[in-house]
Amino acid sequence: MPAVKITETVLRDAHQSLLATRMRLADMLPICQKLDQVGYWSLECWGGATYDACLRFLKEDPWQRLRQLREALPNSRTQMLLRGQNLLGYRHYSDDVVQKFVQLAANNGMDVFRIFDAMNDVRNLHTAIDAVKKAGKHAQGTICYTLSPVHTTEQFVTMAKALENRGCDSVVVKDMAGLLTPSAAANLMQQLTLAVSVPIHLHSHATSGLADMAQLKAIENGCYHIDTAISSMANGASHPPTESMVAALADSEYTTGLDLPLLQEIGFYFKEIRKKYHQFESEFTGIDTRVHVNQVPGGMISNLANQLKEQNATERMNEVLAEIPKVRADLGYPPLVTPTSQIVGSQAVFNVLSGGRYNNISNEVKLYFQGRYGRAPGTVSEKIRQLAIGNEEVIEVRPADLLPPEWDKLERSAGENAQCEEDAMIVAMFPDLGLSFLEEREEGTLTPESLEPISNGEPASTAPVEFTLTLHGENYDVKVTGSGHESDGHRPVYLTLDGVPEEVLVETHAEMMMGGGAVSSSPTSSSGRQRATEPGHVTTSMPGTVIEVLVKEGDQVSEGQPVLITEAMKMESEIAAPIAGVVKGIYVQKGESVNPDEVLLEIETD
Q: With contact defined as beta carbons under 8 Å apart, do 298 and 215 qualify?
């Protein structure tokens, strides 16, 4: 039997799953020499959400990260996760952009391209596979494993054959939600290894607590490549521990031959590094057997928890987890992997927080119903599709077939701050974010988000959550456990008072002092904008950022006409005119943050 080969995920998927993709390059480079000595089959270190996080939060050049990791890992295969025709963005790109991206990634040091499509639509993988083969690199075709009324083992085997026939050097089963049971893993691997001749890999998250057992059964049935994470960054929403799998397979016919003491040194390093990112830890990234119902993958739940925190709604996670399977069914059971995990997850959040199901439908859900992401695995809800796109035609062809070449245009749009093709690709992936990044880099003002301090080797809270309150001579032990979503100028705060759970309703600032000391007669938000009180007041149901203002003062608008585009949780939504009339006032600009119930735009009836 061949030795089992291991792909290490600590530099990408492990911290994406546990720490919302926040690990910085400066904390990776010092340990790279030891990682390079281990003898892994590959080190996954780029792609997925890292590109976005580098620009949005860490203020790092993702291409510079790749080059520095390549230099620091001279003896190892580098590996990335590529979203097929979506590349590392959230829409389909034309074929020439896909080809250019792969070429640049290969030139900058990428060896193994793990290529997947969120719909398991093989048509969306063809261009990327062909480009990787042309670059002389390893093309790994991906089967996104999921459970639903429309997914079968036979379908996965058929997909594996199609990937091999397209020229893939290997095929990976990507079990992003940790759904594989040991028996299911044994059966699937037995069928796949009989059907194709290329090596089969297994990528499984430990969310349900079954991944290490599933990996062992997969190995016993012909899968000799597995993904693991170093122990201090393993388990839960991450992956089985590297050291544990190496120890489990030692002295067997499947031994990895890796140096366990060296791996343990690496584990202790990341144990200390993880503490630096304690503010991104979530109570939802441990073992959670509910994944067999909601199917939320590791990277998704880490980011979902962080997004709910930004919305001041962490206490509503259970409602969102219950809503996700319903939205997924409405969309025809897509596998929950980027970008469909983001599309489904964000729509579930919208449904929970905006006061009703599909009161607010993201633009990405509309594009999904139009067929812009590919063929849905199952039948979509006609009722929800009608609500989202009306009688618009649904495309049946490969979405990229409708896209003309766009690289030259995208390269020009990057502007004078783009010094190379890699810079232009940053703007191509994330236009507004990319332009801001390049501008800040030129001005020397790139500033990463701050990290909360650590005291005595442990995370230090920025505010007390446990304290003694003395009131009228009586002492009370108080522990603040969380806060709720603001509504009508009030926010619930959850605490225990001498061990007894309590909910306190806190009134937020409802009035602003105006110039000259006068108090406004109209309630205003903390941003100074007036609270929505009239039928013509345009507002948003979700906190977010203004992406585009579609009208100007004096414009005539009809009821239901889009007047603003906002972004929340990386998803764009159109805000429609609540009534027909004339635009009387516009109180927001592109790039500004907005909150529910604020007047963003005012429409006056004729």
A: no
